[in-house]
């Protein structure tokens, strides 16, 4: 049985043991090292990881753009290696770099893709309207803002109402307004039953959209779960900035006693930080304890960890594998 | 399958023509260059070249038409290299379309623009004293051969463009193909070339095509030419085109299909 680990028909995206290397010798990059994925039909799966973790390589393999060195994958019921044309009929892909022709207008782009998909021109015009691009439809795409290009790209991916939509960092570099417009479009699609595989560097994006999250580290799935589980496991990040260098160690001792975790010192900024899983820890309590110990502080914060911090936590304190 | 291929190819042809419509300056420049060269070679170099019993400018015009056709290598290379580094290629590759349609559309669009560009070049040629001296059918054959040779040259260019690592590399290599007509009888008869250079020049496909085009237009025959393709210019030209297309089309399509994999 090739898909022993996840042998069931409810998974729309399924990969097992994907391996991919680029280059050779000293230059060799091992982008995927046995990646297993399973995305249930009609759900959004977020692939999280820093640059170079293997997210984009995984998407390129699953969308038939890249041939893996080992392993297998099925998308929408078809093998990506042996049934690539069937896979292509059932997917939509929106890349990190907008996959539209900058030398054509928005309308010409969508009409060209519609033509290649044997769809009527009117369908392309409807999508321009739906994504708020009608006013700019007759300008070349290179004149579009980042958000407009991304919307055009997403519109191009939705011409066929795909079974699986791949979004490779769909909001990287976008302003908050454009970002929420993309998020709304993705939510609308999942309501209609489309399965979405999303890669992102933003924990918040996964939190907003994903039903399940896979943390990728060094080309492997390092952690799986729901966004809530992920957050519960990564806890929160507390940081205080002290008024004088001499108080740095005293602050570290207090934070150590409060959390039981080892704080990290940043002498240049006179800052002490610590990651804690303690849900009961509040900012007033941190400030009170420091005050009681006579540590002079100028700033204190308690916030969800960044993705980097979550990585440090979930990968056992190792440095990021980039 | 064939219908799908032609349908997709026509769609890609439309894509290239739309791109030209949005940025016509590039096309105007590539179409003007041969005219500039024709005037420059005809009136600057031509003033120093004495061809016994022949008018150099009338000799040069058909040669420049063929050199322009050979420029398909440069244009094809640059366009393919530029295209292959664009995000839109990823979209084409993830669409359920015939993959060979992408390079075919490029080559077809190139033929359309080349045919249009021949008109002003011919008018300048006529103004310089060159004439079609043979029959209309033969002249039509000459134009057909020019376009066929351009088509073959474009596929050579597409192949090299897809193989090259960057647009810059393709630009430099493509620029170097400007040398190819210099090593043929397009601009100067090969009779005076020294030893092995002459052999090379006479086996250059451009020499065979230039000889065939001069024959078909009824222009004065070129002195020199002992290679088989030049001695049998029409058959030799067709053979060269067949060889170039048979080698380059499958390799280019294969390269496009497996690109990035």
From TrEMBL, chain B:
Keywords: Antibiotic resistance, Cell membrane, Membrane, Transmembrane, Transmembrane helix, Transport. The keyword GTP-binding does not apply. One of its GO terms (molecular function) is ABC-type transporter activity. GO terms for biological process: response to antibiotic. The keyword Electron transport does not apply. Residues 25-259 form the ABC transmembrane type-2 domain. InterPro entries: ABC2_TM, ABC2_TM_bact-type, ABC_2_transport, Nod_factor_ABC_transporter. Belongs to the ABC-2 integral membrane protein family. This is Transport permease protein. It comes from Streptomyces sp. NBC_00119.
């Amino acid at each position: 049985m090739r898909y022993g680990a996840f042998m069931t028909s409810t998974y729309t995206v399924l990969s097992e043991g994907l391996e991919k290397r680029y280059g050779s010798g000293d230059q060799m990059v091992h982008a995927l090292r046995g990646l297993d994925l399973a995305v249930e039909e009609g759900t959004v799966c977020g692939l999280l990881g820093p640059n170079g973790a293997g997210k984009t390589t995984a998407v390129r393999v699953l969308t038939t753009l890249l041939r893996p060195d080992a392993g297998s994958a099925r998308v929408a019921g078809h093998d990506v290696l042996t049934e690539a044309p069937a896979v292509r009929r059932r997917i939509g892909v929106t890349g990190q770099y907008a996959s539209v022709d900058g030398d054509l207008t928005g309308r010409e782009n969508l009409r060209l893709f519609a033509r290649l998909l044997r769809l009527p021109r009117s369908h392309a015009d409807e999508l321009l309207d739906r994504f708020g691009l009608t006013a700019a439809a007759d300008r070349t795409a290179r004149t579009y803002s980042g958000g407009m290009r991304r919307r055009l790209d997403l519109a191009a991916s939705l011409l066929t109402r795909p079974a699986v939509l791949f979004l490779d960092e769909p909001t990287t570099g976008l302003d908050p307004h454009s970002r929420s417009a993309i998020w709304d479009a993705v939510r609308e699609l999942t309501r209609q039953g489309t399965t979405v595989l999303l890669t992102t560097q933003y924990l918040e994006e996964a939190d907003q959209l994903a039903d399940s999250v896979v943390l990728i580290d060094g080309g492997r799935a390092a952690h799986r779960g729901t966004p809530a589980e992920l957050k519960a496991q990564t806890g929160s990040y507390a940081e205080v900035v002290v008024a004088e260098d001499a108080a740095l160690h005293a602050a570290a001792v207090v934070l150590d006693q409060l959390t039981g975790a080892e704080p990290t010192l940043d002498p240049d900024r006179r800052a002490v930080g610590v990651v804690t899983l303690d849900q009961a820890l509040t900012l007033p309590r941190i400030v009170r304890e420091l005050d009681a110990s006579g540590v002079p502080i100028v700033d204190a914060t308690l916030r969800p960890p960044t993705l980097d911090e979550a990585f440090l936590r979930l990968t056992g304190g190792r440095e990021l594998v980039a | 399958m064939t219908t799908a291929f032609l349908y997709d190819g026509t769609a890609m042809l439309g894509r290239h023509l739309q791109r030209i419509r949005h940025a016509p300056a590039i096309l105007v420049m590539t179409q003007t260059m041969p005219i500039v060269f024709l005037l420059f070679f005809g009136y600057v170099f031509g003033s120093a070249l004495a061809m016994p019993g022949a008018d150099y400018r009338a000799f040069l015009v058909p040669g420049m038409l063929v050199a322009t056709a050979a420029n398909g290598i440069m244009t094809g290379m640059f366009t393919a290299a530029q295209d292959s580094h664009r995000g839109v290629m990823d979209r084409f590759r993830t669409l359920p379309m015939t993959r060979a349609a992408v390079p075919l559309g490029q080559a077809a669009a190139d033929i359309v623009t080349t045919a249009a560009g021949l008109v002003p070049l011919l008018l300048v040629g006529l103004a310089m004293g060159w004439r079609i001296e043979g029959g209309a059918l033969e002249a039509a054959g000459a134009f057909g051969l020019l376009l066929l040779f351009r088509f073959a040259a474009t596929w050579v260019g597409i192949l090299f463009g897809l193989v090259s690592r960057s647009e810059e590399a393709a630009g430099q290599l493509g620029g170097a193909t400007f040398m190819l007509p210099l090593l043929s009888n397009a601009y100067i008869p090969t009779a005076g070339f020294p030893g092995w250079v002459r052999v090379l020049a006479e086996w250059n496909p451009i020499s065979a095509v230039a000889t065939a085009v001069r024959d078909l237009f009824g222009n004065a025959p070129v002195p020199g030419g002992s290679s088989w393709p030049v001695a049998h210019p029409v058959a030799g030209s067709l053979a060269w085109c067949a060889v170039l297309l048979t080698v380059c089309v499958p390799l280019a399509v294969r390269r496009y299909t497996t690109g990035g994999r």
